[in-house]
Amino acid sequence: MASCPNFRNLNNERTSNFAPFSKSLQSIHNELATICGEDTLSYSTVRRWVSLFREGRTSVQDAPRPGAPKLVTNNDKLSEVKEYVESFPHSSVEEVANYVGISTRSAHTILKADLELRKIQVRWIPHCLTFPQKAARLQMAKENLEIYEGSDPRRLLEIVTGDETWIQFKPPIRKQDGRVWLKKGKVPPAVYVSDFRAPKVLYCIFFDGLGPVAQIPVPKGETLTGQFYADVVLPEVEKHYLKRRPKTGTRGLKILHDNARPHKSLAVRQKIKDMGMHEVPHPPYSPDIAPCDFWLLENSKITSPDVNLRIGSASVGQFTDTLKSFPRMSTERHLKIGLKG
Question: InterPro entries attached here (predicted)?
Fold first, then answer.
């Protein structure tokens, strides 16, 4: 029996010729079998096409349908994808595919396998420094290097640094600490997000190259203002140095803290002057200068997860013990890091 070249389209064409007439499906299928032999379409396919032609369809070509498209990877497409991603690094796979004119699967293969790219989360920076602000950081670092680089290491003991931090009565479980070992198929336990209204207390923490200097709690209902900082916080720092240095106290020492509004109030500046201290310049938007900001407080919370506090207490309990446990070399090293900017 003769075979039909391009049998699918030819079958469809012949089916379209038979469809308008009142022939039965079986008759149409039999006639196709006579003409095309082994290449004849199945009875169910003939029935589907006859129904389409009788409804008015004229084309014998299959309509586009969903499915796994063929992968398209060539040097031209690869170059286009590379140029587009370099120009628009935040673009999605779908956007790349639409721009280049390829399937998303092809775009994904080019990005992952050919260009060896991976999409990662960008680092969020709270503030973009202007050129004058960068120049201020550079100037501060140069001045500090002239003073402390190569000088007697004991000069670092002249610097006292401080900041404020919230300490919760029951510290929240960090994500990395919430991991548990489970057998396959077991449901992991749930950990609830810490309530922002959970009991906590604001502490002002100061330390120098020898260790903790003062830990002052802010009473419940009190706001940390410049006046409170000058009348309550700084006198505690002064009291510590009067015990350590009865003759000189805080005279000649330098205080390093950030540019928070209470720190820069007139009352605080006057109090620092009365104590015989000097402020170490702190460039704006620079949380990596004072070690309390970039090292001490967060590391203390990580090291000491079971802090037990009482509002109004003069001590910070286990948190204070953790502060004291930091080696002197570590505190000196981070003071140097901060001063270098």
Answer: RNaseH_sf (IPR036397), Transposase-MT_Hybrid (IPR052709)
Q: Which string of b and e fits 12-50 if b means at least 16 CB within 10 Å?
A: bebbbebbeeeeebeebbebbbeebeebbbeeeebbebb
Which has the higher per-residue pLDDT, 32 or 202? 202
Does residue 295 belong to any structural domain of this protein? yes
Considering the domain architecture, whether residues 47 and 173 belong to the same structural domain is answered as: no
Residue 329: CATH number of its domain:
3.30.420.10
- 291 and 172 within one domain: yes
Tell me how far apart the alpha carbons of residues 338 and 294 are, in angstroms, rounded to a whole number.
9
123 or 81, which is more confident? 81
Determine what percent of the chain falls in helix, strand and coil, rounding each to the nearest 5.
Answer: 50, 10, 45
From 251, 299, 316, 243, select the one nearest 277 (Cα to Cα).
251
- Give Cα separations from 323 to 168, 297, 318 (angstroms): 16, 9, 9
Is residue 23 within 8 Å of residue 30, measured between CB atoms?
Answer: no
Q: Residue 267's pLDDT is what?
A: 93
Q: Which domain holds residue 79?
A: 75-114
How high is the pLDDT of residue 47?
83
Q: pTM for the complete prediction? A: 0.52
235, part of any domain: yes
Grade residue 55 by pLDDT with cuts at 50, 70 and 90. Answer: confident
